């Protein structure tokens, strides 16, 4: 995520207006609408859900299904930017998105998001199965209608509840292969669901003035930094506890268990260090909250990578 400044004056005057009749959008602008960093996480967690599922799809169908799920996630991002265009231009972190810059009109982003949503759902149903398509449709609908349009501007629990949308890709991946839902993908769902609050609130602590300016009730804005840090610590403990479930249920091996234990210990330590009683020991510089944010990304990647590596090793007979 890039930290963008709010440029005004001559820069602002030189931009096409967001509601103008003409568009100067490039391919890169439309790619940015898809939130490619979020898409990359979706692709990876979906791939793990597909990899640990029993059975297999034909490689062409598997790749197509994976791309459909990724495009569906990207469509959600485009629809999110369409709806949030009124506040994105007033927030430092989002001011350089294509709609606030006037490079893509809101109606273009809306049409783009709806088109990609319908195409990804339809193609997933045709190449994999209808259950996975229904789950993808539910994920897009939940992210856009429930999180973006309802929760985000109304409750400090927006990230907690809305995190369900981001946690569903491995379930969809599993379902694309098996045509059913089982406990294993639900465990992956739980891990991502519990990971989302400490991950995002770490960023919200640094960007709380942004959210306060536009009236979005993120936890640091409504409840203060101290409460947010305590909640982060609680969710981190729950997250680390849930990371033991793959081992207990037998689909996480020794390598996964060691990775989860080591990374979990580091995550708990970092969350402990930013508690109100410990915050002063870290000093004013270095933004430890951003360190937690950065490590949280590594943490989730490490857990899912360990599961994927174990499955690859097992499939080629090295385990």
Short description:
The chain has 319 residues and is an all-alpha fold. It contains 15 helices and no strands.
What's the arrangement of secondary structure elements?
Elements: H1 9-14, H2 27-33, H3 36-52, H4 59-83, H5 85-88, H6 106-127, H7 130-151, H8 158-167, H9 169-178, H10 183-206, H11 208-214, H12 219-242, H13 245-249, H14 254-273, H15 288-315
Beta-strand share of residues? under 5%
Helix content: over 70%
* Class computed from helices, strands and strand pairing: mainly alpha
Number of helices: 15
What count of structural domains?
Answer: 2
Q: Notable features of this structure?
A:
flat, disordered N terminus, 319 residues
Structure report:
The protein has 319 residues and is mainly alpha-helical. It folds into two domains: 152 residues, Tetracycline Repressor, domain 2 (Orthogonal Bundle), CATH 1.10.357; 138 residues. The longest helix is centred in the C-terminal third of the chain and has 28 residues. It starts with 8 loop residues before the first helix and ends with a helix.
